Amino acid sequence: MAVRDETLARFARHYAINLLEEPDRVLKQVLRAFARLPYENLSKIVREAERGRVPEARRTPEEVITDHIRLGTGGTCFSLTATLLHIVRQLGWEAQPILADRPYGPDTHCALLLWKQGRPHLVDPGFLISDLIELPKEGPLTLATSFHNLELRPRNDNAKFDLYVVSPKSELQLRLTYKTTPVEWDEFLRIWDLSFDWEMMRYPLVTQVRKGEHIYLKGNRLQRRSHHQVVREELPLQELARYIHEIFGIAPCLVYKALRILKQRGEKYGQAAAS
After folding, report:
1. pTM of the predicted structure, to 2 decimals
2. pLDDT-based confidence at 274, cuts 50/70/90?
3. DSSP 69-89
4. Residue 252 to residue 232: CA distance in whole angstroms
5. For 127, which DSSP code?
6. What pLDDT, in 10s, does the model give residues 188-205?
């Protein structure tokens, strides 16, 4: 395919993706590579401080990919979803953004639907779901990841899908409720703007899957999860920037800047943020 979009071209060059291969294979490679972008709010904290409130604080897909290559950053669910949406559309796929509810509030998450052979498939980079998941027409769908098991349950005539994490004791923990009606772009942007005032902007939040292990940092609490064990530790605040760089590969200059902004705002994190 002739690549006219520089964001897609830059992403493909960085991850050595041959865009001339068969479309399904290209899509699979793109999704696998996109999973290398961490979910992180550090770039969002810095951007807000530098540009002020929205809409100037939103990063474009080009900026997200350029920052990832240069600084090792990713984004939160809105910037990740908007960027992946742009890339798959440039590849020729039909895709739309959708909103999702979390237990603590409606429309506090987003993902995208991609259509293959007339069927909707879910991709959620903000929840680290990088594989295409065909939405079931009926009954629950069990999904096994490298570090936990998920269950996707339709309801309201498939207008919504509840996503559960299955605990080691087979208990279901509701994490998200996806709304399968695509959201209008203006509404997507409106809620993205609101997200700059959410509680998660008051402390460092970084998560990623690496070598089959889910690594999750909230405040200064670090958790590593695999199918076999969960390891938790509290990182020393004075060395937090170094740990974030070493664990997640985010450039120290960006990490130090974000932590300095939080300190200047008087934000307190650690025990309170991770509880």
Report:
1. 0.94
2. very low
3. HHH---B-HHHHHHHHHHHHH
4. 23
5. G
6. 999 999 999 999 999 999
Quote the CA–CA distance of 76 and 109 in Å, as a whole number: 9
CA atoms within 13 A on the CB side of 165: 14
Element (H, E) at 96: strand 94-102
Report the chain's terminal Cα–Cα distance, integer Å.
49
Integer Cα distance of 204 and 220 in angstroms:
8
User: What residue ranges do the domains of the chain occupy?
Assistant: 6-264
d(CA 203, CA 262): 7
Joined together, the tokens standing for residue 18 give 């041959």
| Helix (H/G/I), strand (E/B), else coil: 234 | strand
What would the two tokens of residue 215 be?
A: 């690594």
Return the number of other C-beta atoms located less than 10 Å from residue 221's C-beta: 18
Distance CA 87, CA 203 (A): 30
**Token pair recorded at residue 11:** 């992403």
- The Cα–Cα gap between 89 and 96 comes to 9
Task: Cite the beta strand spans of 136-229 per DSSP E.
Answer: 141-144, 149-155, 160-166, 172-179, 205-210, 213-218, 221-225
| Gyration radius from the chain CA atoms | 18
93-106 per-position pLDDT tens digit: 999 999 999 999 99
Residue 197, token pair as written in the block: 């005032």
d(CA 251, CA 229): 29
Fold for domain 6-264?
Arylamine N-acetyltransferase fold (3.30.2140)
Backbone angles phi, psi at 91, to 5 degrees: -80, -10
